[in-house]
Write a structure and sequence with these properties.
It is built from 11 helices and no strands. The chain has about 300 residues and is mostly helical. It has one domain. The termini are far apart.
């Protein structure tokens, strides 16, 4: 057992459980840059461990009622075959062109994440009036079904090739296309990702791109991590969760740029644990404040009941 890999798995698991983002966008670059894993093995192994991790998180969110089931399944109609196709295309590209196309695709994904993260952050900070238009569920009209399938195809193909995007890109679509509230973004994202990752992981297993021992080490940390993160989601305020989603999107984009070989300062990776730490601190502060307020209200109520008896 490698304690460092277990520790990274725990941190990424908490992040995935809380935001639905960070599995492939963070773990794959870590495996390549920190642990020296061969890129194609990092991609396949990340998908294999991610399938189990997000299944745990998806089950938790389903029980908590934060999953839009219809929307998840319609996205899967497009994403599952696209992911399998992406793995096949990756094999063809590896034989014909090496890693050039992979680098271009990662850079394009990073730019998309950075842009969307900035837009989401701006919305959270400066466009609070739009929050009232967010909704808990989506009516699956023909137009929305089409949007869901197209979004699934895009994300599924990118995931099959790079292992990144199952969380980040789906979150982008759920926020911008369907205007779901943050807690439903996370739950629906993770539940759909669980379906998608099993398809992509199976394709990579067939292709021989999965290191099962490495995946086991990551799972030792990530499974309890995603369980903890899933339990924290509903206890974090929407504004905090929305802002953290933006931070994680930006961090994912920067991490992918680093994966592509560009010179990104190492401190940017701190955006991921910083986002988790901020949410945990927020939960602890709110719970303490609420507990003190409840105690004060109870004391006031008791005093109010005792006052007439004294007169």
């Amino acid at each position: 057992m490698d304690p460092a890999i277990v520790a990274f798995g725990l941190g990424v698991g908490v992040l995935v459980g809380m935001t639905g983002i960070g599995g492939g966008s963070l773990m794959t670059p870590l495996l390549i840059l920190v642990f020296g894993i061969k890129p194609i093995t990092a991609v396949g192994t990340d998908l294999a461990y991610g399938a189990i991790t997000k299944t745990v998180g998806g089950w938790r969110h389903l029980r908590q009622g934060t999953v839009d089931m219809s929307l998840s399944l319609w996205m899967a109609v497009g994403s599952v075959p696209a992911a399998i196709g992406g793995v096949y295309v990756l094999e063809l590209i590896e034989r014909a062109y090496g890693d050039d196309f992979d680098s271009i695709l990662i850079v394009a994904l990073a730019v998309t994440l950075l842009f969307t993260g900035a837009v989401t952050m701006g919305r959270a900070l400066f466009l609070k009036a739009l929050h009232d238009k967010e909704r808990d569920t989506v009516e699956m009209t023909r137009r929305n079904k089409t949007h869901a399938i197209v979004l699934g195809v895009l994300v599924g193909f990118v995931l099959g090739v790079t292992s990144a995007g199952s969380g980040a890109l789906i979150a982008v679509g759920l926020i911008l296309l369907f205007r779901l509230v943050p807690s439903r973004v996370v739950g629906t994202d993770i539940f759909h990702a669980a379906i998608l990752l099993w398809a992509a992981a199976a394709a990579h297993i067939v292709a021989g791109n999965v290191d099962f021992a490495l995946a086991g080490n990551i799972l030792i940390g990530s499974v309890p991590g995603v369980w903890i993160g899933s339990n924290l989601t509903l206890r974090v305020g929407n504004s905090v969760l929305r802002t953290t989603l933006a931070l994680v999107l930006i961090g994912a984009g920067l991490a992918l740029l680093s994966k592509a070989g560009l010179d990104v300062p190492g401190w940017v990776i701190a955006l991921f644990p910083a986002a988790i730490a901020a949410m945990v601190v927020n939960v602890l502060v709110r719970e303490r404040r609420d507990r003190l307020r409840a105690e004060a209200d109870a004391a006031a109520a008791t005093s109010g009941l005792e006052a007439p008896a004294e007169t």
